[in-house]
Amino acid sequence: MRYFCFKPQFFMKKAFLGIIILWLCNACATLQGVVSNLPNATQPLTETEIANGLKEALTQGISNGVSELVKTDGYFGNQAIKLLLPPEAEKVQNLIVKNIPQGQKLIDEAILKMNRAAEDAANEAKPIFVDAITSMTIVDAKNILFGNENAATNYLKEKTFQKLVQAYSPKINASLSKVGATQAWSALVNPYNKLVGTVAGNIAGIREPINSDLGAYTTQKALDGLFWRISQEEQKIRSTPLARTTALLQRVFGELDKKR
């Protein structure tokens, strides 16, 4: 009769190998569970993803746009949105430049102060925009995502413009007064308007007074610049993958890349 002698090391190796196999099986199961819970890029976008993605994109665009406008020279240093005197003030400018010592300096100072007022008021925009974003519906989000290239900007303008005017106007008027723009504008316009109906005015071709409401004009131009800046951010996110700084933005706006 033959007897087999099993060494203890043999059993230890077998047991250790079994433990390793069991651990690997558990790890694979855990990894599979984790992967199954991750967003699947091959699956269609859900309505919730679209809504959240649009809200995130608008919040990012507003934050970037407003943060630039509130800086010194946010308006004044950007030729695309720099505020200038109203077109009807051209005659005033011409007369002042020709007939008043340092007249061009006076005009330049008025323009600078208008832009400073717009920069001062830009902080009013962000909370109003945030309200519009939080109230966005899923239908709104889908229409924006698959709409024209300015769909998000147009949505914000429709939802916020009147509220922005109401918020901007007192701020603009206070800022214009604070930086001296109201006084500078009056110094330009009042002498001109006094010539209307006079012999000297008729000779100089001055027949119509100029609107002296600089606040309303500046508010409109400031908001035009604001929405222009927001539209630039929208275009960046829509067309530039590198501007999509989160996984959600990449997934949502990547859908547009497929349709191009």
Explain what you see:
- By secondary structure, this protein is an all-alpha fold.
- It has one domain.
- α7 runs antiparallel to α10.
- The termini are far apart.
- About 5% of the residues have low confidence.
Q: Layout of SSEs?
A:
Blueprint: H1 8-37, H2 47-69, H3 90-99, H4 103-121, H5 125-134, H6 138-145, H7 151-179, H8 181-194, H9 199-204, H10 214-239, H11 247-259
Helix pairs in contact: 2-5, 2-6, 2-10, 2-11, 3-4, 4-7, 4-8, 4-10, 5-7, 7-10
Number of strands: 0
The residue ranges in which pLDDT falls below 50 over 5 or more consecutive positions are 27-39
Structural class: mainly alpha
List the helices and strands in order.
Answer: HHHHHHHHHHH
Distance between the termini: 83 Å
Tell me the domain tally.
1
Strand content: under 5%
* Helical coverage, percent range: over 70%
